[in-house]
Amino acid sequence: MSAKSWAPGAIVFASLIYQRANTGKMFVANGLPALWLAYFYLNPLFHIIDQARGFAFVNYIPHNSSLDYQIYMTIAFVLIGLMIEFVTCKHASTSWGARS
Fold this sequence. Notes:
Layout: H1 8-21, H2 34-40, H3 44-56, H4 67-91
Helix pairs in contact: 3-4
């Protein structure tokens, strides 16, 4: 959200692409072919959904996702977001959004 004040058009476009890409993450990871699994493997949301499915269903054991990956990526994304927020608060001006 803090990056939106630096490049509003690009951030809106990037968030739209991210939202569209995450609509199909409800695949069962153990049933995906290796080719499809490579497309989803770097997304932390894919790991979170697969691990949650493993906790919710007794007979499902997540083989293709990692609990560590989603924790480390979440920490990394939160730290990057806090750094961007700090820089934006220091340098952002209220006149950026003003229209003349």
